[in-house]
Amino acid sequence: MTTAIANPPVSVAADDAHTLALVDRPLVLSYFVLSYVYFLIALVAGLLYSMQFIQLYPFPEIEFLSPGRIRMLHTNGLAYGFIANAFLGGLHWAIPRLTMQRVFSDKLSWLILVVWQGIVLATVFGLLTGQAQALEWGETPIWIDPVAVLGLFLVGFNLMTPVIRFSGPMYVSLWYFIAALVWTLLTYTMGNFFTEYWIGGTASGAIIGLFIHDLVGLFVTPIGWGLMYYFVPIILRKPIWSHGLSLVGFWGLAFFYPLNGIHHFLYTPIPMFLQHGAIVATIAVEFVVTTVIVNFFMTLRGSGDALRRSLPIRWFYVGMVLYFVTCLQCAFQTTLTFQRIIHFSDWVVAHAHMVMFGVFGFWILGMMVYLIPRLVGTRGWWSDTLNSWHFWLSVISLVIMIIDLTLGGLVQGFQWKNLVLWEETVRSMVPFWLTRTFSGAAITIAQFLFAFNIYMTVTDRSLRGPIDAEPSYTYG
Ligand code: HEM
Questions:
Q1: Is residue 449 in some structural domain?
Q2: I need a labelling partner for 186 at 20 to 30 A (CA). Which of 50, 56, 285, 447 fits?
């Protein structure tokens, strides 16, 4: 490892035999396919759960399909099934190409893939049989936690070996990846063990806040941005605008993010100076985020046509706009003034969907659109039109869901503040929850369209051939 540098040169991008040989393509494809299967299952779970709110839940009497358990299937399935698998696939593609080294062991990579699926399936089993751990986002039953920690350690060892062996420049993507591999292991261990066995009471609330926030900020965010710093310059065929700003973004995230956790528990018995500290740190994150967004949009300057010609770029940049909106929203909703209204309301659910699907989900989908033909060895996609439909239906339905739940959250919050009868507040939410189910159904349909396109692209042998590096299709 020597100096740091902002973006990979084009040689790292080239799909020549040498760089392709560094990557275990069946492995990356397997991660993506598994990720997508969990994605579909978790979406259906979300859709079912949303029907509980409009009193149409289809399995009211079946204990192991009770709505509370199905909610955890939705959230955990998305976090550990969809996002984690897709990120593992992305890392197994990007790290060997950035370092020009294979991972420590291909056999270990496959073992990790199998073990990780075991962990996800055991979690599903545990959740549906009522064994959830009482830790938000760490509901994985306690007997699985040690295996998950071991799995995370092996992932770090396998993927960090090529970085350590590499003697070239430290691309900013690698900074993010290394940090994420270390932070995820620490975060998972802290959240799942400290609060379960050693720390209780209010102090455990503070640790749980840290855990919830660090899962987003120190696991999902750095891998997501690391992948953006990798894919965007490669597709645009130009360097990132400012190397200096990319480092401000990285170190700003490293410094401020871990201080944010307690903003999940404002107005609780946690000492007020800690709550105030978390509020200030959350607002600071918005400034850091702005530097990253400016950097990416300045990189796009002069290449705006890519938004029409490259679907991955479109997914990535829509995700970045939503990232900026989410973080701007954070800077306001973290204040005690906003909290008085929105706490526990559907505003928060809108916020969660905007960041988890609108940002990281969109980046993953963009990455899949870019990589799947390269992994399968096809000239392109079976249907570009279907990909266009997938994009627009997902974006429009998600925006409807966000606006709907944000407004609903405000209605709820003001009603609660004015001590409106509880039943009355529930009744006035029904139109918002109905709209959520409809927009959710549209999101789900869009993902099934993409699943069909993946299936056809993988199975249609007439598509096999060298990748069409300059796509001829202009996306509507
Ligand atoms: C079919 C589309 C979807 C529907 C109908 C749906 C529905 C729901 C429902 C009903 C909840 C529980 C809200 C509550 O307890 O008040 C929820 C929570 C959540 N969903 Fe979804 N969802 C969908 C898609 C997604 C996607 C694609 C993601 C991320 C990739 C996602 C991430 C989340 C998260 C993070 C939460 C937890 C929110 C919180 O605790 O505040 N959902 N979803």
A1: yes
A2: 285
* 277 Cα: distance to centroid of ligand 1 (angstroms): 29
**10-residue averages of pLDDT along the chain (476 residues):** 50 63 95 98 98 96 95 97 98 96 97 97 96 92 96 97 92 96 96 93 93 95 98 95 95 94 94 96 95 98 95 98 96 95 97 98 98 94 97 98 98 98 97 98 98 97 84 70
User: Residues of 355-388 as b/e, b for ≥16 C-beta within 10 angstroms?
Assistant: bbbbbbbbbbbbbbbbbbbbbbebebbbbbebbb
Q: Which of 126, 143, 168 is a domain's end point?
A: 168
Of 122, 152, 168, which residue sits at a domain end? 168
φ, ψ at 371 (rounded to 5°): -90, -30
Residue nearest to atom 38 of ligand 1 (CA): 349
- Among protein residues, the one whose CA lies closest to atom 39 of ligand 1: 349
Alpha-carbon distance 89 to 28, whole Å?
Answer: 4
Environment class of 270 (CB within 10 Å of its CB; exposed 0-12, middle 13-18, buried 19+): middle
Question: What is the C-alpha end-to-end distance of the chain, expressed in Å?
Answer: 43
Q: Is 226 in the pocket of ligand 1 (CB under 6 A)?
A: no
Q: Would you say residue 375 lies in a domain?
A: yes
Domains in the chain, number? 2
Whether the pTM exceeds 0.90: the reply is yes
Amino acid at residue number 209:
G
257 lines ligand 1 (CB under 6 A): no
Structural contact between residues 127 and 44, judged by C-beta atoms closer than 8 angstroms: no
Which residues constitute the domain of residue 438? Answer: 334-467
